[in-house]
Structures are given as structure tokens and as C-alpha cells.
């Protein structure tokens, strides 16, 4: 027996033994309709739960946890990425300088405009 069938049987048994006056029946009907109306409204809440949650927490701790902390984490992350990128550039420049200084050619050869063309021709 499934739950729905059991519910129908219980409702049928309860309805057989029901003998109430009209005023009490009207009050029960109104209470049931009111409960159903609240249930329909409650079903809509999960869709907008995030908006309601944001509106309910409007204190200073909410602003810190929702806005300032992520902004601080973002700024610290961007600064860290920028520092790492700058250190990579410095390392590349140091490697180029070391290669130039350790090479056999004089510095004037690197400044010569035809040196680039000579390097391209000699590499083929």
C-alpha cells in the first residue's frame, strides 16, 4: 500500500466519524484555506531566498563579510600577481644582460644596425 492510498483511507475514516456544526466547519475551512495560502507563498521563497537573506542581514558585519572581504582578497591577489609578473620580467632582463656580458662580441656590435641582418643571414 502506498502513502497516497493510505492517506485516502485515513481521510475516509475521519470523514465518516465527523459530525460538527456549520460554524465549526466554516472556521475549519477558513483555517485550511489560510494554511494553503501560506503554503503557496512558502513555495515561492526558495527562488528568492538569496535576496531575502541579503535583505535580512543589513548590519555592519554583513557589509564586511559580503563586500569588503572579497574586495580585499581580490586586491591582495592582484598585487601578488603583479609582483610575480615583475619578478619574471626582472629575471628575463638579468638573463639577457648576463648573456650579453658573457659573450665574445663587444657591446658596439649589438648597437650596430646591420648586426640584426647579419644574425638573420648567418642563422640560415
Task: Record the SSE blueprint.
Layout: H1 3-16, H2 22-44, H3 49-56, H4 60-102, H5 107-111, H6 114-123
The total count of helices amounts to 6
Anisotropy-based shape:
rod-shaped
Number of domains: 2
Q: What's the pLDDT, averaged over the residues? A: 77
Structure described in brief:
The chain is an all-alpha fold and about 120 residues long. The longest helix is centred in the middle third of the chain and has 43 residues.
Can you describe what's shown?
This protein is mainly alpha-helical. The protein starts with a helix and ends with a helix. The chain is 83% helix and 0% strand. It has six helices and no strands. The chain is rod-shaped and about 115 Å long. It folds into two domains: 1-56; 72-124. 0% of the residues are buried.
